Amino acid sequence: MFLTFDYVPANPYEKYILENSAPVRIFSPELLSVTGMNINFEMRRLKQKNITANIMGKSHFEVETLDPEMDSVVVNQSDSSAVKFEISPDYRKKPSDHVQKGKIAFHNEDGVLVTVKGQQESNFDEGMSIHFVQATIKDHSILDVGHAQVKNLRVKVSDSSAIVLSGDALKKVNGSTW
Fold first, then answer.
1. Are 55 and 77 contacting, i.e. CB atoms less than 8 angstroms apart?
2. End-to-end CA distance of the chain, in Å?
3. Distance (Å, whole) CA 80 – CA 56
4. What DSSP string runs through 117-134?
5. Contacts with 31 (C-beta within 8 Å, 6 or more apart), sequence order
6. Which one of 38, 124, 142, 169 is CB 3.0 to 4.6 Å from 7, fit for a cystine?
7. DSSP state of 109
8. Nearest to 148 by CA among 80, 75, 64
9. Residue 6 and residue 82: Cα distance in Å, rounded?
10. Under a CB-based contact definition with an 8 Å cutoff, are residues 165 and 144 in contact?
């Protein structure tokens, strides 16, 4: 898929909306490659294990995957782009049989059961794993794979660019151990 947005807003309100929202959201389980320039774009419910993204211009591209284990992510960024990979909030872990199940109950001084608002069971886990990440990041761009444990990382970061990594991935930058 190739996307390009006309970045000439008609008024300041339209400019604000285009900069702070995602006017295009695609729920695509099988999109393998995205090339975009001056985009604000979100991909949700991604199901495949590999993706390539070429993002340029003043862009924001976010990928939410339903698979907590991805094989390959290849990213080429330039200009002032931002790319983020994370697990979809629609993903739910299957409860393990060996994990104890139970509830915490709260009682007041009289021994009456008190219901706590906002208390709800959660089986959502933001953690994910990516086997291989290859990234070329130039100009004023940022790549965020901070929610992922990256097993093999090859990056080229130049100019005023940055990459957000989990702690363990820092040891694997360009295949070297620090």
1. yes
2. 38
3. 7
4. TT---------EEEEEEE
5. 1, 43, 46, 48, 51
6. 38
7. T
8. 64
9. 18
10. no
6: Cβ–Cβ under 8 A, 6 or more apart, which residues? 38
Torsion sign, CA atoms 168, 172, 173, 177: positive
Report yes or no: 147 and 88 within 8 Å, Cβ to Cβ: no
Residues 6+ apart with CB under 8 A from 9: 15, 18
Residue type, 54: N
pTM confidence score: 0.72
Residue with tokens 């695509």: 28
pLDDT in tens, 96-146: 544 555 666 777 888 787 776 655 555 556 789 999 999 999 999 999 999
Q: Which tokens sit at 73?
A: 């992510």
* Rounded Cα distance, 48 and 66, in Å: 9
